[in-house]
Amino acid sequence: MLSVEEMASLQRKRLQARILSSEEEEKLKRDQALVSNCKQQKLEKEAQKNWDLFYKRNSTNFFKDRHWTTREFEDLRSCREFEDQKLTILEAGCWDCLFPFLEDQNIFAYACDFFPRAVEYVKQNPLYDSERHKVFQCDLTKDDLLEHVPPESMDVVMLIFVLSAVHPDKMHLVLQNIYQALKPGKSVLFRDSGLYDHTMLRFKAGSKLGENFYARQDGTRSYFFTDEFLARLFTDTDYKAVVNEGSPGGSVV
Asked: What is the pLDDT of residues 221-249, one digit of tens each?
């Protein structure tokens, strides 16, 4: 069985949802009407186009070299058994947390994204080296990841602010897909938006797609996780949850 995070010495912590103000509680009670099925089907069909346009509009602000990843996940420091051990990692979603790893000469980094523009942005980074990095387009809800990476080859898979963009009915398909790429006993490092995140409370009436699932005006979507949903999602796909906790900013880590 695989670990969601490999540090077996850490005990699982419960995510405590942020306490809502009375005004916030009232807002959520009022905003119960769901987007029509017709529009929801349209959003699902146009998901790739909508996110690709998002990347086009936000490339300057979205793709930044942020080195917070190794501080957030102790596993990234502890996964090496000895100094300078060569590692193979996969970032599911070409997000900016990949860039710090491009500096490490002992890491071979794979990265995939549903959106072609995101793939191109990574390839344009000056640190990108085709000898040590492979970036490719892949829809993890339906494409076979093993067409691009060897089976059971990854020491770490990072799933950072990616799963929330996937329809809840398809999230398990993403986890099944990356499961087959992980070495036995290795780690998926996950971070995403938690229930009652401030972003969730900013959605206007008429944006709700389902429980904890919302659509932005640009057509992109976001799901907000509870620890119960997240733990069940992983364990139902044969993972073992070792750490599952909330951060002050409303993220599930």
From this structure: 999 999 889 989 999 998 987 765 655 44
DSSP3 helix / strand / coil % (the chain, rounded to 5): 35, 20, 45
What pLDDT is attached to residue 252? Answer: 46
DSSP secondary structure string for all residues of 104-149:
-TTEEEEEEESSHHHHHHHHTSTT--TTTEEEEE--TTTS-GGGTS
CA–CA separation, 173 vs 252, rounded Å?
20
CA 25 to chain centre: 27
| Average pLDDT of the segment spanning 86-103 | 78
SS3 150: coil
Pairwise CA distance, residues 8 & 10, whole Å: 5
Cα dist from 112 to 43, 90, 91, 133, 135, whole Å = 22, 8, 7, 11, 6
Which helix (H) or strand (E) segment holds residue 240: the answer is: strand 239-240
Containing H/E element for 186?
strand 182-193
d(CA 177, CA 145): 6
- pLDDT (tens digit, 9 = 90+) per residue, 157-195? 989 889 999 999 999 999 999 999 999 988 898 888 899
- Angle at which helix 227-235 crosses helix 171-179, to 10 degrees, equals 50
Its pTM stands at: 0.83
**67 falls in which pLDDT band (50, 70, 90)?**
low
CB 93 within 8 A of CB 140: no
